[in-house]
């Protein structure tokens, strides 16, 4: 993806988030030069992988296959071993009409996907086989405390206010329903490390290669190491 495209998505997303009354934390608005001046007090932002995360999954067409994410809070995988560890995470996502997030599951992360407003979110579901294929068995998920059963590869639709709990190793693929508008999607989950926890059914790139045609407006999570002096201990 070109940096100019990422900057444009950031600007558009900030407008949508404001319209939906979902406000981002202060570090969302720091510039690259702000980051250069930050000290060790900000180290959690890097260690917990917080912040901007915009990807086209290597498709080259963000509007068709892509996702806007911002990690609002998270722990670290090592927290899972500590009985007082920060073992939860929260993300906010923006999903456009017909914009696909490709089929994937998480090895460790259980996640609640929540429609926080706007359009409708369609999610296609499959159980996985022990060899990480798509199972043919029916899928049962809990939607706001109510168990729902769909056939393998069947869909559920989350309207504003509705949510679903997706357990580990349950394949899912989602997009915004055509004609209903852009969707603000929340995610409340176990602690998350996107570098190791995602199994995509088809090979995709979780983080995009970036062509630096202009300066970054705000840093993506993967940019911190280049601008933040405390990134290397
Ligand atoms: Fe997921």
Describe the protein's topology.
Elements: H1 3-19, H2 32-36, H3 43-47, E1 51-55, E2 67-73, E3 88-95, E4 101-106, E5 111-118, E6 121-127, E7 139-143, E8 146-150, E9 154-158, E10 163-166, E11 170-176, E12 183-190, E13 198-200, H4 224-227
The structure holds fe (ii) ion (FE2).
How helical, in percent, are the residues?
10-25%
Radius of gyration, taken over Cα atoms and rounded to an integer in Å: 18 Å
Identify the strand order in the major beta sheet. 1-2-3-12-5-10
Rough shape?
Answer: globular
Integer average pLDDT:
96
CATH class: Mainly Beta
How many β-strand stretches?
13
**Based on the structure given, which CATH architecture is correct?**
Sandwich
Number of helices, counting only DSSP H or I runs of 4 residues or more: 4
Please, how many domains?
A: 1
Main sheet specs: 6 strands, antiparallel
Amino-to-carboxy terminus distance: 29 Å
**Looking at this structure, what is the CATH superfamily?**
Jelly Rolls
Assess the beta-strand content as a share of residues. Answer: 25-35%
Concise overview:
By secondary structure, this protein is mainly beta. It has 4 helices and 13 strands. Helices cover 13% and strands 33% of the residues.
